[in-house]
Each structure stands twice: as C-alpha cells, then as structure tokens.
From TrEMBL:
Species for this entry: Halonotius aquaticus
Family annotation (InterPro entries): UDG_Type-4/5, Ura-DNA_glyco_family4, Uracil-DNA_glycosylase-like, Uracil-DNA_glycosylase-like_sf
PANTHER family per the UniProt record, alphabetical: TYPE-4 URACIL-DNA GLYCOSYLASE (PTHR33693:SF1), TYPE-5 URACIL-DNA GLYCOSYLASE (PTHR33693)
EC number: 3.2.2.27
UniProt signal peptide: none
Name recorded for this polypeptide: Type-4 uracil-DNA glycosylase
Glycosyltransferase among keywords: no
Gene3D superfamilies: Uracil-DNA glycosylase-like domain (3.40.470.10)
An example Gene Ontology molecular-function term: metal ion binding
Keyword DNA repair recorded: yes
Length: 202
C-alpha cells in the first residue's frame, strides 16, 4: 500500500471528509511487538492535535485502568479503526472504516499480539462484522478473522462510557485487568511481557 510502512500511514487521501477535518494522521503507538493491542474508534480533538491515540480524558481512564492492572501504557500498543478525526466527532462511516481496514489489519499482523481489545461498540462491530450489544458482551473473548489471520479478541466498553456513567467504571477496570492477564502481562503474572517466563526468580 502506498503511503504505508506496515504499521504507520504517512499519506492517505481516500476519505474526503476526513482529509478536510484532520490536522494530521494519527497512527498507532506502542511497541512494534506488543502482546496486547487496543483498538479504538477514531481520533478525537486531543488525538488530532497531539498525533497520538487516546491522549484525552478517555486516554486517562484507559491509562489508569492499565496502571491498576500493573501495566504502563508504554508496554501496550494503542491504535484506532480510523486514523483521521471525523468532523464534529461523528462516528466513522462504513466507507471510512473500509478504507482504513487494510492499515489496521496490516498493523495487527505485523505486531502479532496474543490479544486485541476492542474499545467500544464501533471497533467491536467492525472487527467482528456483526452487531454487538457491548454492555452485554463486554468481557467476552472471541476469535475473529483479520485478513489472513485468526485473532483472539476481547470485547470492552469504550473508556468514555465510564465518564458518562461512573457505575461502569468497575466493569471497565475488570475487563482491562482481564486483558492484561490474558496477554500474560502485569505484576501478578509469571510472564514479564516479552514472552519469556521469569524462570530466573526460582
Ligand atoms: N476515542 C477513540 O476511540 N479513540 C481515540 O484515540 C480517542 C478517543
């Protein structure tokens, strides 16, 4: 794909509304070999300004939940279904999601994580290619087809849901803790995140 290095898009003008509304393309951040990859919907105003996914209030909620689970944000990869900010923060359209799909699939294939976590309804429905009742299905682990690979995916509510409804916070934190554990990361696990067990401790 032109304007794409396997993980990052350097140049793309496929979506006219997004080209008009973005100030930059927001690529995924985090290790190129992360065990855990979070997939959000699309950049918002803060992300568009900083050029990094989840750096606004939703990002703080995610960072806190990761921290509570014993993992620093820098240890995971964070990306979005769509890499350019939609106008007025509307949902990405079906065409926009489809235009960006190849980048997302290639990024996930290149990183090859043990677990992908979809943050919210839009990325969950996009990756599973079916409608998702996220309040009921958050916490479920499914296998999904991503390009040529079968990928283990954990469904999560969007961190912003906890800002609208504080009673969702415990459930969100439990899902993130489960993601950390399933990916073999975090303080409480016997794996230190590089895929090697800490055998030297014994
Ligand atoms: N919400 C998202 O879905 N993605 C971001 O990067 C920020 C907020």
């Amino acid at each position: 794909m032109d304007g794409f290095d396997g993980r990052c898009v350097t140049d793309c003008e496929q979506c006219p509304d997004l080209v008009a509304s973005r100030s930059q393309i927001v690529n995924g951040v985090g290790p190129d070999d992360a065990d855990l990859v979070f997939v959000g919907e699309a950049p918002g105003a803060n992300e568009d300004e900083k050029g990094e996914p989840f750096v606004g209030r939703s990002g703080s909620v995610l960072d806190d939940a990761l921290g509570d689970a014993g993992v620093d944000r820098s240890a995971v990869r964070i990306t979005n279904c769509v890499r350019c900010r939609p106008p007025e923060n509307r949902d990405p359209t079906t065409d926009e999601l489809a235009n960006c799909r190849g980048y997302l699939e290639a990024e996930i294939e290149s990183v090859d994580p043990s677990l992908v976590v979809t943050l919210g309804k839009v990325p969950s429905e996009h990756l599973l290619d079916r409608s998702v009742a996220i309040t009921n299905e958050a916490g479920d682990v499914v296998d999904c087809r991503l390009g040529d690979r079968s990928q283990r995916v954990l469904l999560s509510m969007h961190p912003a849901a906890t800002l609208y409804d504080a009673s969702q916070r415990d459930a969100f934190e439990a899902t993130i803790a489960s993601a950390v554990s399933l990916a073999g990361l975090g303080d409480g696990d016997s794996d230190d995140g590089d895929g090697q067990s800490r055998l030297g401790e014994f």
